[in-house]
Amino acid sequence: MSFTMLLLLAYIVMGVGSFIAFKRKHKAIGIALLLVIVLSVLILGYMWIHSPM
């Protein structure tokens, strides 16, 4: 499996996990998972824009 597909799978799992956390009234866990998703997308986007390739 390629790295991109593994990342997609990880994002799906974290998205579902945050949805479940919000449904079960665990706001802190849901927010933390969403923050991990957002920060990783921002970091990967920065690395993609600034890569020498």
Summarize the structure in words:
Keywords: Membrane, Transmembrane, Transmembrane helix. The chain crosses the membrane at residues 6-22, 29-49. This protein is mainly alpha-helical. It has one domain (3-49). 83% of the residues lie in helices and 0% in strands. The protein contains 2 helices and no strands. The protein has helices spanning 3-23, 27-49. Helix 1 packs antiparallel against helix 2 (27-49). The two termini are 23 Å apart.
Attribute tags:
single chain, 2 helices, mainly alpha, 0% strand, 53 residues
Provide a compact summary of the structure.
The chain is an all-alpha fold and 53 residues long. The chain is 83% helix and 0% strand. Helix 1 (3-23) runs antiparallel to helix 2 (27-49).
Indicate the low-confidence ranges by residue numbers. none
Overall residue-averaged pLDDT value:
93
Rg measurement, Å? 13 Å
Secondary structure class reads mainly alpha
Strand content: under 5%
Largest sheet: none
Task: Kindly report how far apart the N and C termini lie.
Answer: 23 Å
Provide the helix percentage.
over 70%
Shape: elongated
In sequence order, what are the helices and strands, one letter per element?
A: HH
Tally of helical segments: 2
What is the total domain count? 1
Record field, number of beta strands = 0
Task: Please write out the topology.
Blueprint: H1 3-23, H2 27-49
Helix pairs in contact: 1-2
